[in-house]
Amino acid sequence: MSTAETRETRPRRTPGLVPVSETLRTTSRPAPSDTADPAPAGTTAPAGTADAAGTTASAGTADAAGTTAPAGTADAVGTTAAAGTADATGSTGSTGSAIYAASAGGGRAPETAGVAEGGRAREAAGVAEGDRAPGAAGTVGSADVIDLAGPPPVRRFGSFWRLLGSELGLTFRRPRNLVMLAVLASVPVILGVALRLVTDDMDASGRGGGMGGLVASVAGNSLMLAFASLSFLVVLLMPVAVSVVAGDAIAGEAGGGTLRYLLAAPAGRTRLLTVKYLNAVVFSFAIAAVVALSALVTGLALFPVGPVTLLSGTTVSVADGLLRVLISVGYVGAGMAALAAVALALSTFTEVPIGAIAGTVVLVIVAQVLRAVPQLEAINPYLLPTWLTRFDGALRDPVDLGAMRDGLLAFGAYILLFGSVAWARFTGKDITS
User: Fold this and answer.
1) Which of 111, 206, 343, 371 has the lowest tally of Cβ within 10 angstroms?
2) How far apart are the first and last CA of the chain?
3) Closest C-alpha among 213, 367, 340 to residue 279
4) What are the residue ranges spanned by the domains of the chain?
């Protein structure tokens, strides 16, 4: 037969593609010199005969593309398209689905069929020539399954520290926080200049011997200005600075609409809350250190340097005095960290930062007022401001470790209590903004 028979009963087809269920439209062509004659169009190749690619399409054997061709189903290009058998690219066709092959023309299968001359899978199918192409998801047999979703995200150990570093960078680059640090650093300078002027005035009038305890202590040694500055600022100004940072931690993110995106990172609520609190703790110690450093520099510039006379009347060396200043800075920083836990807990109950900040400052002021009432002396040990000034134990010889230990335990109790409140509220809070 010189020409191929054509059946006209055709289902809906894709342009350029012909269902294998129909008879392929072929033209007569000479057989290559090194291959066997192809089977005429419209006929089937019996088991054990060679197809157009020169391979044997027998039952249970693989064709040139590495796929299985049942007996009598080999087409003109040497590939098999039968229900439940592997197609030319190595994937398995599902039962009852139409598998399309390219029309034969010019003696070569078009590249759109996914095969090249000789029935080998092309590299465009995702593998090198001669290899098995990966199967699509949902196929059976030996086909590979490609997981399009990918592996689940892996939470790296360093991500917590990167998040904390980013939070610290934002905190210490924010103009508002830098202004607060500058204001706190300027207070020891103002205090030192004022004490210097008072000292000079008393010396000029001959009343130098009647100077008060604070003025006399600072005038006698520059290191005492650090203790005086901490005592003056720890009552109100330092709590305000800490309240601004800690009160804005959660409420600021919620009010700005960025809290939802932080939790979708995914950052995790507990981890995010921990990062926010540690950021406030670092800022608390930073303001204590800034105040002490500013006071030391101002004291060295305005007052003499020498042995330090403590509150107990004992004189210690300059090195011992610097160590006691460092102890005082650590104690004050711990007290501010406890106050930061209070502000953070209030921050989880509102989306308005000024509300959490104002609430924390009001609590500090109310506690100071309650301490001034003699009839309420019994509740003083439970008020946080009661313990903020106990760093003066470092100015005694020996150091009053008992009072400072009790203060640190009170700070720890506040951190545990209000930290638990913040965690319970934040982990069960609906993020709606």
Assistant:
1) 206
2) 78
3) 340
4) 1-136, 159-427
